[in-house]
Amino acid sequence: MSSSTSSSSPVKSTGLHVGAIKPGVAKKDPILVADGVRRQFGGLVAVEVEHVEIPRNAITALIGPNGAGKTTFFNLLTGFDQPNDGKWSFNGKSLAGVSAFKVARLGLIRTFQLTKALGLLTVMDNMKLGSTEQRGEKLSASLFPFLWKKKDAEIEDKALEILRRFKLDEKKDDFAASLSGGQRKLLEMARALMTNPELVMLDEPMAGVNPALTESLLEHILNLKQEGMTVLFVEHDMHMVRHIADWVIVMAEGKVVAEGAPDEVMKNPAVIDAYLGSHQDIDLGTVTGRVTLPTLPKEK
Amino acid sequence: MDFLGILSSSVSFILAPTTLAYALATLGLAVHFGFGGLLNMGMAGFMALGAYGYAIGVLTFGLPWYLAAFVGIGAAIVFALILGIPTLRLRGDYLAIVTIAAAEIVRLLLLSSAFGGVTGSADGLSGFNGPGGTITNPAEGAGGFDQSNPIPAGTYGFPPFLDNERIWYLRIVGAIILGLAIFIVWRLVNSPWGRVIKGIREDEDAVRSLGKNVFAYKMQALIIGGVLGALGGLMLAFSTNVNSSVYVTSLTFFLWTALLLGGAATVFGPLAGSIIFWVLQAFLGLLFPALAEVGLMPFSTIQASQIKFIIVGFALVLLVVFRPQGLFGNKKELTFVK
Amino acid sequence: MRTRSTMRRRIARLASALSAFALAFGALAIAAPAQADVVNAEMPFKVSGNVQNQGKPVAGVTVTLTGAAGYTATVATDADGKFVAGVPAKEADYTVTLDETTLPEGIAVIDNPATTFVEANVQTVTVGPGGRATMNFFIGQGERHTTSFVDQVVQRLISGLNFGLMLALASVGLSLIYGTTGISNFAHAELVTFGAVATFGLVALMGPGLLWLAIPIALILSAGLGWGLDAALWAPLRRRGMGLVQLMIVSIGLSLGIRYTYQFFIGGSTEQLPGSDAERFKLFGSVTLSITDIVSMGLSVILIVAFALWLSRTKIGKATRAISDNPSLAASSGIDVDGVVRIVWIIGSVLAGFSGILWAYFRPGIRWDMGGQILLLIFAATTLGGLGTAYGALVGSLIVGVLVEGSSLFIPSDLKYVGALVILIGILLFRPQGILGRKERVG
Known about the structure:
heterotrimer; A: alpha/beta; Rossmann fold; 4-stranded antiparallel beta sheet; 10 strands; 32% helix; globular; C: 443 residues; alpha+beta; Immunoglobulin-like; ABC transporter involved in vitamin B12 uptake, BtuC; 6-stranded mixed beta sheet; 13 helices; 56% helix
């Protein structure tokens, strides 16, 4: 059943860290650095990350049992939620207090666990929305088509090229609502590419995706790295993590409990503990990646 | 029973100033809700500010009518800003309750005797379209909206559009404003700006994650729709007196009915919806009492004249349940976000 | 033949003249099919007058009007010494009280020899069939008559509690419905009106002596209405999985339809229930209370306690709370969600209906849009307490009730609802979970 075995093994980036491997280890060339980021809901501490660095031009997986605070951490990093405490920076620029849309403009683009394809817009309009260069989006310019028509044609060409890669070009005039769940995931990723991002953060890109599509999704993620982008993704599918990730960060109960290359980190007792602590019914084999995990109830 | 007379009176509402006023305000709602997804239930407040701003501009500040009109529009913009800055981050149904409450506050302030000297309190304001001048100095009037009418006195047209020069002037001014408004809205929603606004309607977080300043776009939509609402109120004020009892919550609900009739995410739907709404209102409002009078309906004529409102209410229910895209909307492009 | 064609021409001319009339002058009338239908009671009639000090107008003097069973309005004189107040009914008596503390130092109302009243600053006017009445006050050197501030505060507080308890009956129902179905039910106002209108109809049918029987029957009819609306409309829409926004607009349409149906049957005037003119007796100082006030508050408390017991003790009550907390979890743990929601509609309608009967005594009077007048206050109370939490709605209602009644001590009484609406907006902005609600987790 596992779909990724058929593709040839991707080239892993190695030597990303500096010094001994431990949670919060420094990276040679970090793109994103978080320090003391804490988010509390009432009495519950959802995220408390002391220090973490995301390596540039590599694929990093963020894993952990349900309720570990992965999605909340994503929200905090991208400005969709504000932490009670802490600082974090992207390319050396502090993102504390920067609103979500400005974070996106800096080149840090995210997708959502529950896909947010804009259902009643066409696939092409979804793509065009990703572009950051259209001055016709300004109210003052929008009334004068001669100011934006040419740019719109350029954007459309670029969108078509990306859509072709994602095999969505035939659907370009359909409403996004008519796509399948997997196609919507693809569309969301394609749309993110329209913004020319530096760091792409994918929240469970494989969740709910038809097995027939997983392979192409994996390839697209690997392509991002080849094109010089950095990828950080949350995933429950350990098989996928082992297959494509260069680096793995493990979260449990809001904290980073382990880091390392995929094969090593899976053997780390802290990781096995974290998973066993919350899912004692799960066979250790699934955790270490020999079997695909059963579909777990999704984090809110 | 004079069926032809009833029909002709009803048809005359196609070009009535009130219909044009409704169409303008409904177009504003289309920008808010149909394209921007903003659940504005306080359109009556925007209309009231447009109408009262104009009337007060003439009567209290002694402005010429065309400058006073901008007082009304300016008041609506300020209202949109005050309302929007804190509320635009609220969930849809919360926004609905906040806007309805804000519009009621506007109405209660206009009704209160505390500001009666400026607003006329329960009596409302009148005489601002005439040669007028201010309340305190009626002599200095330089000529108001009525005096700007270039059409010579007389009766023009053919039945059922046989009317005097004032009505024709109102129609022409209204049609020009509405035509311009429809053109601008059409341009806007078919531009990249419109694409962003429609994206926000579908999922504002997704649009935010693509680097768009969602708040600014929503605010722009709120202001544009609010100005259209104020223009609707202005149109009502051009044609008659202003009174706070007009700008009640029901008015907003009637606008919503007209909007959903025509199709919320369409540019011409608001006009079509307003025409249908008013022609039907007039038709039923004349037909039922006439039927009651000749004994074909077992009610008093007063009761019969109220049936049309009952029909409006239940028609709104049926529309939302069975034809949410409106009479002219695209079935696929249902405007309701889940 | 000839006469007929002239007739037709004449009719045509008449019709076109009529339509022109409708266009030119009727726009206002047609654009205002509902007069002031929300929050502020319609006050079509007027009491006005002058306050003069030896022929010169006195501005800023507070004048309070009171009328049958609870009507009060406070207005101030303008620069010309004039005051105007709207009153709810014609052919009725109103007491006009001039607050002498608002007069300049050293002067008071001169005893008017034309009246037999001892206190010259308290006068009675009769609004005749014309709907207008005048009451002039003449000021000069003299002694003042004062109502102590404490008395006023106590009076407002009692009135506010009464109003708040009445609101609570309506808002706990709205809150339960919101909690279990997610509907912001605008038609709740019509459920409120229904109780009063049904009682009125039954009294007309059975005679005023059977009021004690009419009220329970009206409540049974309310229950039937709630059941019917859910069975015929809301349950099918729920099964279709209709979105919350659509449901809200459906409730708006329903509200308009039902409201005008009431108007169709009872007309546009204000009618009274038997006992609304009950005498007021003096509690202490100038604080007065009527027997209907006491009965009204007593019954509210009994009903609210019964409701709280139902919600906390019975199986269905517990199921209701479970659904409010987490509908899908409740459904998967074997609770019959549809059945419970049906019961919630029935109970919500009965409470709203009873609240309508009390509102008819408090306003006083029955009108086709009486529920709509307090709908936003009910929303405010529900929101203040935390949307979907029944106990919160109770607390919120009491706060809104006291606030609305108390605020007229400080601001003009025709603005007393504004305070509550401002609070509604403020709560939605800064603490949408209400004072008793829990904060939702984001993300």
